[in-house]
């Protein structure tokens, strides 16, 4: 009986794995609280729905990588697609541009933060 139970579990796990196909990331760039010029905030780049799990996320200020950013652990949802978040403490000022550079399956794309300042 125990072997049968194991076989059933593995059937489910293989079915789940075979469902996962290459999928491009969905990206959202936003701030933790409403942004105001000169006020400290957190810039967040949320990336989800992608597969395979290898991905590079960079937060950029005026095109330059923000080195003090932190990344959450990779997590996956019920459809076996992965999601994670990169965030950084920042203080937006007039004339500055912020963006998230996401590289997946060899393709890089920039996602601009459209700060409502
Ligand atoms: C985005 O990231 C990729 C991979 O790290 C890098 O090759 C590319 O130059 C970056 N693009 C920009 C505009 O920084």
- Kindly give the count of domains: 1
The fraction of residues assigned to DSSP E strands is 35-45%
Radius of gyration: 18 Å
So, CATH architecture?
Sandwich
- Helix count, DSSP H or I runs of 4 or more residues: 1
Got a strand count? 9
- Low-pLDDT regions: none
What is the H/E string?
Answer: HEEEEEEEEE
**What general form does the structure show?**
elongated
CATH-level-4 superfamily name: Immunoglobulins
Averaged pLDDT, please?
87
CATH topology-level fold name? Immunoglobulin-like
Alpha carbon gap, first and last residue: 64 Å
Largest sheet: 5 strands, antiparallel
CATH first level: Mainly Beta
Q: Helix proportion of residues, in percent?
A: 10-25%
What bound compounds does this protein have?
Answer: 2-acetamido-2-deoxy-beta-D-glucopyranose
Which structural class should the secondary elements be placed in? alpha+beta
Label this structure with key terms.
Immunoglobulin-like, four-stranded antiparallel β-sheet, binds 2-acetamido-2-deoxy-beta-D-glucopyranose, five-stranded antiparallel β-sheet, 1 helix, 117 residues, alpha+beta
Blueprint of the fold:
Blueprint: H1 2-19, E1 26-31, E2 41-50, E3 56-61, E4 64-65, E5 70-71, E6 75-76, E7 82-90, E8 98-104, E9 107-112
Antiparallel strand pairs: 1-2, 2-7, 3-4, 3-8, 5-7, 6-7, 8-9
Bound molecules: 2-acetamido-2-deoxy-beta-D-glucopyranose (NAG).
2-acetamido-2-deoxy-beta-D-glucopyranose (NAG) is lined by residues 56, 58, 101, 103, 108, 110.
